[in-house]
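Predict structure. Chain length: 160.
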Amino acid sequence: MLKARLILVTSCLIVVSCGIIALWLMLAGRGSSDWPSVAGVIVSSSIGDHNNYHMGKKTTTHYPLVLYRYKVASELFKGKRVTLHDDSGNMGEARKISKRYAPGMEVIVYYDPGNPHKSVLEPGFNRGYLFNFLFVVSVFFGGIAIWILRISNREQKRVW
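Prediction complete.
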């Protein structure tokens, strides 16, 4: 019984932590919607990749590599973020985003007024984080419901 409770508490902590992180990412991304904007120009647009090694297995994730220039108060800056929390993922999504931003294209750049080096082309939160948050919350409450059902079944067996 102690082992089951330890597993439950550990699982709850992991799920709650993931939910808090997803919520923080959503709120931070939402804050970028209020940033001021300036005109910018795409310098280059391609697809980057990152190799991950886990338990001797190599996986590759792809991400859009979009570089752009913009000026804030006559100071020139360079940026590379499309969204505040760029996701790495599959080749198709990276290619789609990269094609959206052709070199030489004029764009609107949103920058953090407290730190103009921090900028994005697409402000707001990533809807994927909302999905992740809702999934984590569902898993959390589903796990609690299953645990409660197991306990109530044990109690019923004891009564009989």
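Summary: The chain has two domains: 1-31+125-160, 36-122.
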